[in-house]
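Deliverable D5.2: sample structural annotation.
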Amino acid sequence: MSNGPELALPAVYNLADLRAQVRQWRADGLRIGFVPTMGALHDGHLALVKQALDTADRVIVSIFVNPTQFAPGEDFESYPRTLESDAQKLAEIGAHLVYSPDAGEMYPEGYVTTVTLTGPTHGLESISRPHFFNGVATVVCKLLNQVQPDLAVFGEKDYQQLMVIRRMVRDLNLPVEIAGGETVREPDGLALSSRNVYLNANERERAARLNVILHDFAEALSRGDNVADAQHQAQLKAQTAFDGVDYVVARDAENLEALPAGPIERDARVLAAVRVGKTRLIDNRAAPKT
């Protein structure tokens, strides 16, 4: 069951071997959980795996740096690739299988099919990264079809992505439960991200401001402040704190639609994407109606 490096837990590198293992587990009546990742695993990823382990008999973790969700000039080539240490971390918490295909396995010669959504893909990440969600939806759809899990867990840190995947699964009638995992943070509140390794010491200190700004923004909405006023204040704080601001906005928590003026009338989500030095950070916070 190996066409790659020796790892700390069982691994498969092609679809045939993956399906053979899944078929065996299915024959044994086991419930299968799945966590898709691009590797460079941190405690946030591991929390998603632990969540899957809570309700599944076997958990598969995919590690695949997906080229179709990177635009020219983004960090595809430099994105951290740490398969051996990732597998060690997964073995230590009890994951059962790593699935690590290469690009040729995922997108063989002549591949032409993509998955395209509207709805929750509009705005936010799509403004500066218009390619992104087609790449994400396509690779996630392929992975779900390849693994055929009962449950798949995605992090709430990438909240728009979670909403896109839930819509895709619903619209395409894919037989899988999609669960969201809470964002894991550093002690100073910075959301864990594989890209945090790009930050130098000064940038790392400044990056922690993002959580504070979003926390205050969410609290303002929950206590009944006007959406437009609270959003404007949060945007001003972000423009002062960071080297670039793609967005700092409030959206409907269920469908990511823009909110009307005035106090929120249902649960909201505040979301941001900013740049600290050359590193782009995203984060979000729940703003429940109280």
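Annotation notes: The beta strands are 11-12, 32-37, 58-63, 97-99, 151-155, 177-181, 244-252, 268-276, 279-287. The CA atoms of residues 85 and 139 lie 24 Å apart.
The annotation will be released with the project's public dataset once the embargo ends.
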